[in-house]
Specification:
342 residues; disordered N terminus; Helicase, Ruva Protein, domain 3; 6% strand; alpha+beta; Lysozyme
Length: 342
């Protein structure tokens, strides 16, 4: 019924645009040409959609003040749709990805920041049970330690995706959560910037993740993952902790496999103890035997057909909850190891 009403209103609005009120071309009130009417249609359709969403937001408890500040005057961002629909011209190999994401310069910067924020990281680690090197590694992989956090206005970007993106229902929910963040006073609409897909701040939280995991570490009454490094790092640690992080194990290790190894055993679906993997001939990449610990692990090959194999623990699965990419999870683990071992 809602769609039918919106369609009827859109037709009426388009008819009004084309209704002749003057016979002199170029004069005010002259009838719109077919081309002009066609160009107005997407804008009108978006405004109709936005009006419908606005009603939903209001019934969900978003104040009129927030709605006016966040939604008045916004328009779709064509570049967001382009990025959403774009297919990459080429795919980086795993090793090229690692070279790009975990260069020596990032390792060294991470080590410096570990020292700069030593006291803060010590407190956050103790509170959430997550080693500082993993918090800093996530910070580094996501935004180069807060340097590159995205320049898109989050509300218009999410509205664009919610209106005509591939996952409209998902982004409609994220847009509503973004309004809840504004409604709570943590940030202003103009300062709420992020990626084209709505990932925000120094640790690139989607709005739904912000509401679940963001914390006010500096005690100013706001959960500011954009401008407050304490809030950003504590929020990352809180995410990992509440997602099942174990402080008694790392993330995994590079391993070598024996000849004729059964490749069907590679994948997160197969879990075995380190002792069982050792009995199958799995060893550390340098040839050393696996640790003698009661840890359950899985083998992963980040790149299909690639040579690099890793034996990963439960914490790797936690990182995968953050970003479901083997490239990403391995990069975070590798950067954490290098930051923690100067």
């Amino acid at each position: 019924m809602r769609k039918a009403s919106a369609a009827f209103l859109l037709l009426a609005l388009l008819s009004a645009c084309a209704a002749p009120t003057s016979t002199e071309p170029g004069k005010e009130g002259a009838p719109a040409t077919p081309g002009q009417a066609d160009s107005q249609a997407p804008k009108l359709e978006f405004q109709l959609w936005l009006a419908d969403f606005r009603k939903q937001a209001k019934t969900s408890g978003i104040s009129e003040e927030t709605l006016v500040a966040a939604l008045d005057g916004i328009a779709p961002i064509p570049r967001v749709i382009e990025l959403d629909r774009a297919q990459p011209e080429f795919k980086l190999t795993f090793r090229k990805y690692m070279d790009r994401v975990v260069p020596l310069s990032r390792v060294e910067k991470g080590r410096r920041l570990m020292k700069t924020h030593a006291a803060l990281l010590k407190d956050i680690s103790a509170k959430h049970g997550v080693p500082a090197r993993f918090i800093v590694a996530l910070w580094g992989v996501e935004t180069d330690f807060g340097r590159v956090s995205g320049g898109f206005p989050v509300i218009p970007a999410l509205a664009t995706l919610a209106h005509e993106g591939r996952r409209a229902a998902f982004f409609r929910g994220e847009l509503l959560d973004a309004l809840r963040i504004l409604n709570q006073g943590h940030i202003t609409p103009s300062a709420m910037s992020g990626s084209w897909a709505g990932a925000m701040g120094q640790v690139q939280f989607m709005p739904s993740s912000f509401l679940k995991f963001a914390v006010d570490e500096d005690g100013d009454g706001k959960r500011d993952i954009w401008g407050s490094t304490p809030d950003a790092l504590a929020s990352a640690a809180n995410y990992l902790s509440k997602s099942g992080w174990r402080d008694d194990i790392g993330w995994g290790r590079a391993v070598g496999l024996p000849a004729e190894f059964d490749s069907a055993l590679i994948g997160l679906e197969t879990r075995k103890t380190l002792e069982e993997w050792s009995e199958l001939g799995v060893a550390s990449k340098d040839g050393q035997p696996l640790p003698k610990r009661a840890i359950t692990a899985s083998l992963v090959r980040p790149e299909t057909g690639g040579e690099d194999i890793f034996l990963v623990y439960d914490n790797y699965r936690v990182i995968m909850k953050w970003n479901r990419s083997h490239f990403f999870a391995t990069a975070v683990g590798h950067l954490a190891d290098r930051i923690g071992s100067p």
